[in-house]
Amino acid sequence: MEYAVYILASKRHGTLYIGVTNDLSRRLSEHSLGKGSKFVRDYKVNRLVHVELFDDPESAITREKQLKKWNRDWEINLIERENPDWQDRTPDLT
């Protein structure tokens, strides 16, 4: 099984949401239907801008907690290293 740490954004440099899941497609679908998180629903954070994959849940959870402690500039730099235009990566999953 594969585990994903992901970052969603409302827009470029907008509101960010960091999450972890063992089924990224399902989780993104839940978010898009307004079932994944009240925060995501309320702030319209639905653009997948960053994903990191892990083989075990402990590593994924550790990374999620690490990212959530980062300051905003570090999170933005992480996103822009691989996704400078903040493109939605959801279509890449299919």
Structure description:
By secondary structure, the protein is α+β, with helices and mostly antiparallel strands. It is 41% helix and 22% strand. It is built from four helices and three strands. Strands 2-1-3 form a three-stranded antiparallel beta sheet, sandwiched between helices. It is globular and about 30 Å long. The model has no long low-confidence stretch (mean pLDDT 95).
Any key phrases for this structure?
single chain; 94 residues; alpha+beta; GIY-YIG endonuclease; three-stranded antiparallel beta sheet; 22% strand; globular
DSSP strand tally: 3
Predict the CATH topology. GIY-YIG endonuclease
Strand content: 15-25%
Order of helices and strands: EEHHEHH
CATH superfamily: GIY-YIG endonuclease
Low-confidence stretches: none
Number of domains: 1
Task: Give the neighbour order of strands across the main sheet.
Answer: 2-1-3
For this structure, what is the CATH class?
Alpha Beta
CATH architecture: 3-Layer(aba) Sandwich
| Main sheet specs | 3 strands, antiparallel
Dominant shape = globular
- The helix tally amounts to 4
Task: Sum this structure up briefly.
The chain is α+β, with helices and mostly antiparallel strands.
SSE topology sketch:
Layout (H helix, E strand, L loop, with lengths): L2 E7 L6 E6 L2 H9 L5 H6 L3 E8 L2 H13 L2 H11 L12
Antiparallel strand pairs: 1-2, 1-3
